[in-house]
Every structure is written in C-alpha cells, then in structure tokens.
TrEMBL record, chain A:
One GO process term, biological-process aspect: tetrahydrofolate metabolic process
Protein name: N-methylglutamate dehydrogenase subunit C
GO molecular-function term, one example from the UniProt record: sarcosine oxidase activity
Organism this protein belongs to: Mycoplana dimorpha
Ranges for domain Aminomethyltransferase C-terminal: 924-1009
Domain SoxA A3, residue spans: 531-615
Listed NCBIfam families: soxA
Family affiliation: Belongs to the GcvT family.
Residue ranges occupied by any GCVT N-terminal domain in the UniProt entry: 631-903
Pfam name, any one: FAD_oxidored
From TrEMBL, chain B:
Superkingdom of origin organism: Bacteria
TM stretches of this protein: none
Taxonomic placement: Bacteria, Pseudomonadati, Pseudomonadota, Alphaproteobacteria, Hyphomicrobiales
Residue ranges, compositional bias (Low complexity): 89-107
Name of this protein: N-methylglutamate dehydrogenase subunit B
Organism: Mycoplana dimorpha
GO molecular function terms noted in the UniProt entry: sarcosine oxidase activity
Region (Disordered): 85-107
TrEMBL record, chain C:
Database matches in InterPro entries: SoxG, TrmE/GcvT-like
The protein's name in its UniProt record: N-methylglutamate dehydrogenase subunit D
Pfam families listed in its UniProt record: SoxG
Lineage: superkingdom: Bacteria
Gene3D superfamilies: Heterotetrameric sarcosine oxidase, Probable tRNA modification gtpase trme, domain 1
Length: 1017, 107, 216
C-alpha cells in the first residue's frame, strides 16, 4: 500500500482547530498563516529559488512554498518572455515551470505546483536571461506583430536554407522553455502490472465515495491519485459531510479504505491513458519528492493497470477568463487561491479581488475572509448577483460590482490595480495585489475521450461533459458535470456499487454520505475586449487576437486552429485553454460551441518521462541477451563477441600480439584449412519435427524432398515463402522414422518456428505432426579441417567408426564420447572442409569446448569465430543472410535445381511467375577486384565498364565480402544480372557512399575447392 | 489490447503476433505426377497471397500466441474500435484432428 | 588415453552463489534459488490421441495429465500444462539414464516426446514481496484468488517464453513460484529478477534439487 492514510500531527491539530506554532524565527515565509493548512510546521525545509535561500514546510509544494515566501514572479513566457506567476495549484499549471535539481538530475519544465518540497530542493526559473527580473528577450513583446498565429509558417518561409541556418537557431534561443541536462539520467525506473476489478481515478469526494462503495462490495479496488495526498478538492474547499467537517469525513473514509485488504490506494500516481481491453497507463512518482531516490529504489514507475471497470472521478479544472493582462503575476485561478490558503496556509496576496462569472468563485471570498485577508472587491459578470452574496459583502465590508475586469496594471512582480467596466457603463479602478478569477469549471473529459468519444456540451454548466466512454468506464462527479458535494458523493457511491456488481462483487456497500446540494450558477463569459494582450493559452502565448486571426485566415476547424496557433499544444495540453479557445472561435465564427467542437483527446494525459516508458530496458538491459552454453569459456579465452539478434556470439579469438581483427581471422581460417578448428554453432535454430506425418510435412515446407531421406541421414533444405522468395535454409536430419531434427539460420529461428506452427495448425491440420523448439537443449560445435577426424578419434569411444565408409558425408548418428556423454554427430560442412558438427546436451557444452581443446592439442586445434566462419563460407560460395535477403529466389541463389518436380511445396506456384524466372534477374556470383591489393566493399554497385553510373546502368551489388587468406585477396559474393553467363567479365564496382570506383571480375562463386573433394574426403 | 486465448485465458497483446486476414484460403496442395500443377493455380495463389480487403469494421484475423501456448487463434476484431467479439483456436491446435476441410491434401 | 571429465554447468552457476543483494533489510523480501538436476520432457499428444496420452501419463507418472493450465504433482513427477494437448513432465534426474528411456514405449503412437532437460533452467522465487516483484516481470494477475497453488501458465518474461507455476507456500506463508526459462536466456532473466528485487532485499540461497526445499 502506498501513501499515508492517517492524519499527520499537523492535520490533527488543524482538525482540532488548535493554534499551530508560528513559523520558526528566521523564516522567510512572509505570507504564511500562523495556523491551519495541511503542512507540518514542525518539519521546516530549506530550499532555493534562483539561488535565493527560502524555507517551507513538509506538505508544501514548491509553488505553495513560493507563495508563502511572497514570490510572485516565477518565470518568463514562451514567446513574448512576459513575466509570469503561479496560475493554478495543480497539474494543469501552464506558467510556473521551473528547472528542478541540478547536474544530471536537472529536469526542465517541472510544474512548481506538483513538485513536492524537500530539504535542499533547488529550482531555477526558465526562459530568461540574464535574470528573471531583467530579461533581455522581453523585447520580443515589441516584435509581437511577427509572433502572431502561424508566424512559423509565414515569417520564415523563404528562402528555405535560411530556415536551418538562421531562423531556427535564433528562434530556439529566444523561445523554448527549460534546458535538459544533456547527461545520462542517473536514476532508475521500472514498469509493473496491476490488476483489479475497479480502478477509481481521483480521490476527491467522488473517488473516495466510489472506492468505499466498491471496496465494501468486495471488489478488488485500486484508487489512483496523482497528488501526494488523497482528498482532491476536499483538501481545499471545506464544507460538511454527514454532519462532520469534510476533512474529518475524509480521514475516516481513508482509514476505512486502508483497513480493506481488497483496496489499494496509490498516491502520487497519475492515470495518463486509456488503452484497449481495460488497460490503463499510470505513472507513479515514487521518489520525485526526495532529492535522490534511496539506494535500490526507482524514481518513477510506469503502471499498466488492468481493470474490469473504471470509475473516472478526475474532477474538473477551473478555467481562466480572457482579458487584457490576465497573465500578469498576481492573477490566479480562484480555486488555486483557495487551495493555497486552506491547504497550505499560504496567502497569495494581502488584498484580493475576485472576478467571476459563477457562484463557485465566491467560495474563495469566504476562504480569504476566514484567513483574515482583505477583499478589495468582487467583480461578478452575472446579470443577477444573488442577494445573500451582496449581504455577505455588506457585512464583510467589500464592494461588489456587476461587470467585468478589462485591464490590470502592475509590474513584473505583480499587479497593483484593476480596471473594472461596470455593466452600467462606468469604469472603476480598484487597488488589489491579487486577482482571483473564475470562468467556470471544465470537467476533466480527457481520459473518457481517449477512445475518440466526443464530449457533449451542457448549457446549464457551460461546459463539456464526457460523451461515449471507453468500454468499462463510467465518469462520475465533477468530471461528469455534477459540481455539488452531495451529488459527487452520491454519484461516486452509485458508480462504485455498479462497477463492483459488474465485476461480480455484490456485498452490502451501505449508503452514500450526505452533503450540500448547492448547484453551480454560471453565466458564460469567455472574453473581455480590451486594449492589451489577453491570453488564452498561457504556456504557448496564444492570445484572443491570435484566434480571431486564425479564423480570418480560414483556420476555423478546431484541429486547424490548434495547429495554426499551437493552442493547447504545450505541456499542459490545453487543460486551461482549449474550451476557452474554441468558445472564442465560436464567437468570432458565429457558431455555437458544440458546432465548433473539440479536438481529439489522446494519451498521455500528463507528461510521461521517456525514462519511465523505458523502465528497466536501458543500457546493457536494453534487451535481453542469449548466451550459448560455452559462453563463459569463450570469454575466458578473450573472445570478441558480436550481437547477432539477441545472441552474443564469439566473433574471433585474438591471440596475444595480434594487432587487428584481420590478423586473428586470417590465422583462424588458415589453421582450419590446414589443421583443425571448431566453432560454436549453438545459436542455429533447432526444431524437433515429430509424428507419423513429419516427412510429409517437411516435403510441403521445403522445396526438396525429405520423406525420402533415410534415418541417419542429413540433407540441406530450402524453404520458400508463398510468394516464391526464399525464406530460410538449413540442414535437417532424420533421427528416427517419426523424428526429424530441423535447423534454421540463427536469425530466422523464431519466425520459422512460428511459420511451421501456422502450417501445422492452420494450413494442414490433417497432418499428424508435432513441433517444438530444442535450440536451447543442445550445445553444438562445427569441427572443421583436414585433421577433424584425428581430433574426433581422441574424444569419441574407440569403438565408433569415423571412417569415410563408416561415417559418410551427410550421415548422422549418436556416438558415445570418452567419459560417458552421448553426443549427436553430423557429418556436414559449411566451411567446405572435412567437417563434423557435434552436439551434446547444453549442460555439457562448456565441458565439450574445453575437452575439444584437450583432444585437439596435439593437432594444433583452435576455436574460430563467426568471422572466420563467414570467410570460409564466402570462399566456398555458400549463401547466407546477405544473399537470403528477402528478394532472392532459389534460382537466384543457384539452388533452383533443388526444387522437386514430384511433389508440391509452399512457394512452388508463385516462384514460377514470369518475373521470378526472368533470365535477366540478378543472380549470385563471385566478385574479385582486378587489383589484388584492393579491398572489396559490401554495398558497391556493379556497372558495366564504360557506362555512366545511374539506376538504368546499375546491374547488381556486392552482398558479402571477406579477405580470403587462401586466395590472398579480398573476394566477395554479389547479385549481378545474368551473372552466371558472365564469368570472366570485368565490371565496375561503383560505391558513391565511400567515393570508390574500381574494376572487379565476375567469377564462379565457389572460390575454393570447387570440386568439393575436401569436405567429402 | 487484451486477447482471451481459449487455452490460457485473457492475456496482454504483447504475447501475441498478428498475421492478418484469415479469410483467404490457401489453394490445396496438389499431386504433381498426375497434374503437373492445377489449372488456374497461378491466379488462385495470386489472390491468396496478395489480394486483401481493407476492412474498417469487423474482420477475421489470425493471431499467434507465441508468447504463451504457441497456438494460432482466429479472432473476429473490429479494426476501427479494437473490439474483439470472438476468439477461436485454429483447426489444428493441440491434438485436434480436424479433417482437411479447407486446406486439401496431396492425393 | 585417459577419459575426459564431463562437468555439467548451469548458465546460472556463477550467479547463484548464496549471498544477499539489494536493500539491506532485516528480512529479505525475495528469496531466490536455482533448481538443479532435473529431467524435463515435453509430451505432445498426437492427433486424436489426447485421451490415450493422458491415460499413459497417469499410468507412467501416477499423476493426472493437466488438460488446462495447472501443475499436478505425482509422487516424484510434476506434470504442468504448456499448451493445447501438451504438457511437461518434470522429475529428478537419474544419473547415467536418458530421460526418454522407458518413456518411448508407453507413449508410442500416442504422443511425441522431446527431451528439454538442458533446454530450460528452473528458478524458484519466494519471499514476502514476491508478488510485488513479479508484477514487474509478468503481466499475469498472480493474486491468490486468481492464481492459487497448482496454477500454471505459459507466458512471457522480458519477451522470452517461460512456464510459470505456483508451488505450495513456503514455511513463512509466502507464495512460491517456479519460473522455467530458456537456458540461453537464463543469465539475462536472472539479472532482471535481481534488479527488480533489489529494492526489497534479496537472499540468493544455494541451488537445490527438485525435492529439496531451498535453504541458506
């Protein structure tokens, strides 16, 4: 269970109404109340903002601590570098973005409103130079005519190269937000799964009520809360529930939830996305609230929560009103003013005015009065201001105006005066250092709309509510447009019971707690015309006039509006601004708001760090690795490893004094060709093909026949795709009448297994055949070279006949090794040398490698790696991955004659298509530079001598190259048009990538021992 | 997305691999000695390999539970909403010995 | 000529030395061990032969062949489901004997058999935090109500196929999970398990045989 559910001592004192101690002497907290708030005055914390030392308390956010310290200017805006303060108290904050921490942990664009205060926190303001107060780039405001909507598109169109060289660097320096550290993130992240019957998103009154009901009903419940503390608006809004203070009710409810073993409360956990099949993405900020995570702990954890049902109780977000200067420090959302006062005991100002178009804003007046703050005036734009509110104003001694705020004045450190245009026509100037604004509430419709459900408009609350929700989800409470406390509690309870019942949990859940049903009264007001900039999207500096301009220029659709003005595209994803923006668009385009519509909502709902999405999978854990049974032995010998898919394979085994890889590889090849060596081939895919129809099955998947293969024999096989192109190749042996041992290339092991299962289960269920991978069961080595048999005679029991007659080419059988282990021995050769492959159960793989070294010592045995293996296969003209590249046919590879004419097989029909049997196709040939000292390179194109290189004259390309110690020069394989008819012809190898152009000779791809005598000897 | 494997129960989609449209039927294997190939087989294979409907709505698809029981499954899935209305095992999963109704045999 | 020495090695043998990893806590949240010296045979029923295969298994192993995702314990053998009409037989290794010895006859024409004794490594995980840790590796719901003792699954960890089944609980009441992984992936998965366990404190106990309880 995460998070603390019991009252802290500070809360207990608060709940009891006791006087808390005054802030410690030396405190910088000029705006901190002496009592109240959910902060622990016994736990003071030091922090710095722009290097200035300040103090706060445990329970503070950075924003609340800044408010308590009287800080009003916290950042500069994105485009115009306007001074900005704190607007909100939640994750929707657009202005108060800071760089948090330092060094490699420096994190830009962190919302001060969600960053929990910790001892030693360091924060820097962003987007200013040289200092927050004197910012040179605020000159951008003077240039604002060119920064209007669509300025990127208009101003910097031409000439094109100016964009890269001049405009973009200049804009990036002037605009933009924080700086990333540029260093590797030193912290750890991980990912986890969680499963439940009912996921409740949000722990305000609705969420807690839903979790209680579902939990009591017996459902497995996860209650996810993005804040560090459960409670939502209950932490800020006061009120009574069931005859007790709402905080007391909350404490009781959380205590009950923690007593239920089937309920898990996850705080600091933001649900950010709704995915298919009841899967939800959530980000838990496990250790963002401390300077550095404790050792072995993660910083953040990404959750994938699988829930049968989901109750979204994500609440609503208060929206700004758009008027001149509404972005100035000191203008704050009314609900945020309330939160700072009630939850954090921090005063945003000393003289507060309220500008509202609805009844809820007045609750801020009540909270401010309770805290002893002077209310300078209330400006309510509704035509009829209720009598009881006017009476309250009279009693409390503040003025109430029916009208609007049309301008504010003040400097970078905050507002000082407000201009009010009264409905009756006169203008009044009011002194105030803080203006609380409330333009109404937008239900959080994001999660509910992640499956393209379109929110629907409700006139009574002047807001969108969720439309069709993703399957299994319901939205309740404020997120669904129910704004009264009583309605939230009832809706949460009902949703909790229903969700539990739909998950099959129906125990008694009691009845919902009762509270006031006071409904929201609102008269929409979006925009007040004025002389100065009036902001809609604070973070992206989108103004009301930008929207009007977009409309005039034809970008009327909300999706166009969004992209043209960048409205809602900042890190807050328009949670403050979208609805207001489209309401203004509706106004200027003469449509209704529902006609104007909303943009599409997509995950993530809150920013998610890439580190959290990657989790454990970074650096050496980027992907899992596969090791062969003798890996440790190879490592002991100093092998250089190469990544082949997930496998680590020994690439070569350098000896002391060898100065480069080529020296090692040449030595390995020569040793094998003249003596004996062995190579780990355990990575080849191995599949047991079993059952009475195994042979018939293989006949269908290979172009050549396997049912006719005798027991104890191996055969090279080639598989085609249905389109006639080669899929894979390998050697397959018949170990028993009903048991074949099929091998694949290392790369295609997985895909071939999947394909064969498809054939068995989907295409030919009538065939009685069983398949299973046995790749990991066997350690397999290729032993090659003229002294192979000598070595083997040392290690196998003397009774085993290894002579050419007793163990002919392509024979397979079990042999006993000296000391008791039974091995499978295959007389097959990839190197073109006399060779065997030997396999033992994987647990003996390490011992086999060591024993081969002992047995072969007198013959000078060496291990060789994949590079030498590659050299020898090129010398022999054997095709591999670069030739089996998804474009080649059996004929292209020179293997066309393998195709059986007596049986059908996959790919037969389409392989006969005109284009695939065209004599002009590019086919595998050998290639060698005419200048023997020349290095041949893969990827070079072959062009006829004398032709100008162009796509029309391009006749093929080099696929594989190596330095051949046998031929003493670089050689290669390639795919060349009509290549087999052109042996001896000189063409150009044209390599524009490396700037090379040289003559090469087309030749037989079998460079070495073309008669094949060595491997059969 | 989650798929209810008829053998394993509901699993996350990372355990599955998508193949595609389950509608096209592979033309039957033929006996080459007799026919040397079937009449019109090139056209039949062309249709089978290349021709696909681009369905916005319910579609039958093959999925492979390679990260689980290695069964091939036939799903009915709405490509527009990802809603899965049916999951069945392919005819030849496990030991089922379904007659060669669709795939044909070498005769 | 002297005979060769054939020392069996596990890819985990250097990782499984008894020690404590991760957070220094009083009681380790995770107890981890490798199970050694087992034979493992995959039994795949042939077409139309499921009942006959199940009957043969019952006679040969004295345990009910699992027809759904379960692990069934016989006297010395555990049979656990691995897919449609297929299951594994896991039993102690008999020195010098081939695992398929003696099995071919009773299962002839009924099932195909594949020796996987060396193709898999078996990791046993327990401890009070085992479910929290496995939630990082496995997408399965391992809650006791959903995945009780004897439940089995063919699933994936870190994109690699594994067989997972729940054993009888440990002495301290913690659930015990067996994770059967591909041999080539064992080292990688072991380290992923260690990383995922570190915050809870891990005790690696010495490798043990199938019929032994892990102990330090």
């Amino acid at each position: 269970m995460t998070g603390s559910l019991s009252l802290t001592s500070a809360e207990a004192r608060f709940a009891a109404g006791a006087k808390a101690p005054v802030a410690p002497s030396g405190s910088t907290q000029s705006n901190r109340l002496d009592t109240g708030g959910l902060i622990d005055r016994a736990a003071p914390l030091n922090f710095t903002f722009d290097g200035k030392a300040m103090t706060g308390f445990a329970g503070d956010t950075l924003a609340s601590a800044l408010v308590a310290n009287g800080v009003r200017l916290v950042g500069r805006s994105f485009k115009y570098h306007r001074p900005r303060g704190i607007l909100t108290a939640g994750s929707e904050e657009p202005n108060a973005l800071v760089e948090l921490r330092s060094g490699a942990r420096r994190e830009p664009n962190t919302k001060a409103t969600t960053a929990e205060l910790y001892q030693g926190l360091e924060a820097l303001s962003q987007n200013r130079w040289p200092s927050l107060r004197y910012d040179v780039m605020s000159v951008n405001q003077l240039l604002s005519p060119i920064f209007v909507a669509g300025f990127y598109y208009k101003t910097f169109m031409w000439p094109a190269k100016f964009w890269e060289m001049i405009y973009e660097p200049a804009i990036r320096r002037a605009a933009g937000l924080g700086r990333s550290s540029g260093l590797a993130d030193p912290d750890h992240y991980d990912k986890a799964w969680a499963h439940c019957d009912v996921l409740v998103v949000g722990s305000g009154p609705t969420g807690v009520s839903a979790a209680l009901a579902a939990g009591r009903a017996g459902a497995r419940v996860i209650l996810a809360e993005e804040d560090s503390r459960a409670g939502g608006r209950l932490l800020s809004d006061g009120g009574e529930i069931g005859g007790m203070s709402s905080r007391e009710w909350l404490a009781n409810a959380l205590a009950e939830l923690s007593s239920l073993s089937n309920v898990r409360v996850m705080t600091r956990t933001a649900v950010f996305g709704v995915y298919d099949g009841g899967t939800y993405g959530a980000l838990e900020r496990v250790n963002d609230h401390v300077a550095t995570p404790p050792e072995h702990e993660v910083r953040q954890r990404l959750w994938r929560i699988v829930a049968k049902r989901c109750v979204v109780a994500a609440g609503a977000i208060e929206r700004p009103i758009v008027f001149s200067g509404n972005d100035r420090p000191g203008v704050m959302m009314a609900s945020a003013v309330r939160t700072y006062i009630e939850r954090f005991a921090a005063l945003p100002g000393k003289r507060v005015a309220l500008f509202t178009n609805n009844s809820d804003g007045w609750r801020t007046v009540e909270a401010a009065l309770r805290a002893g703050v002077e209310i300078s005036a209330v400006i309510d734009s509704r035509p009829g201001i209720p009598e009881e509110l006017r009476a309250m104003a009279e009693v409390s001694g503040f003025r109430v105006f029916n009208g609007v705020v049309h301008d504010v004045r003040g400097g970078a450190s905050g507002i000082s005066r407000i201009s009010v245009a009264q409905a009756k026509g006169t203008t009044v100037e009011i002194a105030a250092d803080t203006l609380a604004m409330s333009g109404g509430w937008n239900p959080s419709v994001g999660l509910a709309s992640h499956h393209r459900g379109r929110p629907t408009w409700r006139d009574d609350i002047a807001a969108f509510v969720p439309g069709e929700c993703p399957p299994g989800m319901v939205v309740a409470g404020a997120a669904n447009g129910d704004f009264s406390l009583g309605a939230c509690l009832r809706a949460g309870h009902a949703a909790g019971i229903a969700a539990a019942a739909e998950s099959g949990r129906t125990q008694k859940a009691g009845s919902p707690a009762a509270a006031s049903d006071e409904a929201l009264s609102i008269t929409p007001l979006w925009h007040v015309e004025g002389k100065h900039k009036a902001f809609v999207d604070f973070q992206h500096d989108v103004t009301a006039s930008d929207i009007a301009l977009a409309q005039r220029e034809g970008f009327e659709s909300v999706e166009h509006l969004k992209r043209y003005t960048t409205l809602g595209m900042a890190t807050d994803q328009g949670r403050n601004s979208n609805v207001t923006g489209l309401a203004i668009m509706a106004e200027v385009s003469g449509r209704t708001i529902p006609q104007t519509g909303t943009t599409i909502y997509r995950p993530p709902q809150v920013p998610v760090a890439i580190g959290a999405l990657a989790g454990h999978h970074r650096d050496e854990n980027f992907h899992s690795t596969r090791l062969t049974p003798s890996h440790r032995w190879a490592a002991e010998r100093g092998a250089t490893f190469v990544d082949t898919g997930l496998w680590k394979r020994a690439q070569w085994y350098p000896l002391p004094g060898e100065k480069d890889w080529l020296t090692s590889v040449d030595r390995e090849v020569l040793t094998v060709r003249n003596g004996v060596g062995f190579c780990d081939v355990s990575t080849l895919g191995k599949i047991d093909v079993m059952g009475p129809d195994a042979g018939a099955f293989l006949d269908r998947v290979y172009i050549n026949a396997f049912s006719s293969l005798g027991v104890g024999k191996a055969r090279y096989g080639l598989m085609l795709r249905e389109d006639g192109i080669v899929m894979d190749d390998g050697t397959t042996s018949r170990l028993a009448e009903d048991h074949y041992f099929l091998t694949t290339t290392t790369a295609k092991a997985g895909p071939v297994m999947q394909y064969l299962e498809y054939c068995r289960q989907v295409l030919w269920p009538e065939l009685d055949v069983q398949l299973t991978s046995c790749t990991d069961q066997w350690a397999q080595f290729s032993i090659a070279g003229p002294k192979t048999r000598d070595l083997l005679r040392e290690i196998v029991e003397p009774s085993e006949d290894l002579s050419n007659e007793g163990f002919p080419f392509m024979a397979v059988r079990e042999v006993k090794l000296r000391g008791g282990v039974v091995a499978r021995l295959f007389r097959i050769s990839f190197s073109g040398e006399m060779a065997f492959e030997i396999s033992v159960p994987a647990r003996f793989g390490d011992a086999l490698a060591r024993n081969l070294m002992i047995a072969g010592k007198q013959f000078g045995v060496i291990p060789y790696g994949t590079e030498a293996l590659g050299v020898m296969r090129i010398e022999k003209g054997h095709v591999a991955g670069p030739e089996l590249n998804g474009t080649t046919t059996a004929g292209d590879l020179g293997l066309g004659k393998m195709a059986s004419k007596k049986k059908d097989f996959v790919g037969r029909v389409l392989a006969a298509r005109e284009g695939l049997v065209d004599p002009n196709r590019q086919v595998v040939v050998g290639l060698k530079p005419v200048d023997k000292a020349r290095r041949l390179r893969s990827g070079a194109h072959t062009i006829p001598k004398g032709a100008r290189p162009s796509p029309e004259t391009d006749q093929g390309y080099v696929t594989s190259v190596c330095h051949s110690p046998m031929l003493g020069q670089w050689i290669g394989l390639g795919l060349v048009e009509r290549g087999r008819e052109r042996y001896g012809e000189i063409v150009r190898a044209h390599d524009p990538l490396r700037g090379e152009d040289y003559d090469v000779e087309i030749c037989n791809p079998v460079f070495y021992d073309p008669e094949g005598g060595r491997q059969r000897g | 997305m989650r798929i209810a494997c008829p053998f394993c129960g509901e699993r996350e989609n990372g355990e599955f691999t998508y193949l595609g449209d389950a509608k096209p039927q592979r033309p039957a294997m033929v006996a080459l000695e007799v026919a040397g190939g079937a009449a019109g087989e090139a056209e039949a294979f062309y249709d089978y390999v290349y021709l696909r409907d681009n369905v916005a709505g319910e579609m039958d698809e093959y999925w492979y539970h390679g990260g689980g029981c290695r069964s091939w499954l036939r799903l009915t899935r709405n490509t527009a909403t990802h809603e899965i209305t049916s999951v069945e095992a392919a005819p030849g999963t496990g030991a089922s010995s379904s007659p060669a109704s669709t795939a044909g045999t070498i005769s | 000529m002297a005979d060769f020495t054939w020392t069996a090695t596990s890819p985990l043998q250097h990782a499984t030395r008894p020690r404590r990893h991760g957070a220094a806590v009083q009681q380790s949240g995770i107890v981890l061990s490798e199970v050694l010296d087992f034979s493992l045979v995959l039994i795949l029923a042939r077409r139309g032969q499921w009942s006959a295969t199940a009957k043969a298994a019952k006679e040969f192993f004295g345990a009910e062949a699992p027809a759904k995702p379960l692990a069934v314990r016989g006297k010395t053998t555990t049979l656990f489901w691995s897919g449609a009409d297929q299951f594994y037989a896991l039993f102690p290794r008999v020195p010098a004997a081939q695992p398929l010895d003696g099995m071919r006859e009773p299962f002839a024409a009924k099932a195909s058999l594949s020796d996987q004794s060396d193709g898999r490594c078996l990791i046993q995980i327990s401890g009070p935090k085992v479910r929290a840790m496995l939630a990082k590796l496995s997408s399965l719901d391992l809650d006791g109500s959903v995945f009780p003792v004897g439940a089995a699954a063919a699933t994936s960890i870190d994109h690699s196929g594994v067989n997972l089944w729940r054993d009888t609980d440990a002495a301290d009441g913690s659930p015990v999970y067996n994770v059967l992984v591909f041999t080539s992936f064992a080292d990688s998965i072991w380290h992923t398990i260690l990383d995922s366990s570190a915050e809870y404190g891990v005790e690696v106990v010495r490798p043990h045989a199938l019929d032994e309880k892990p102990s330090s």
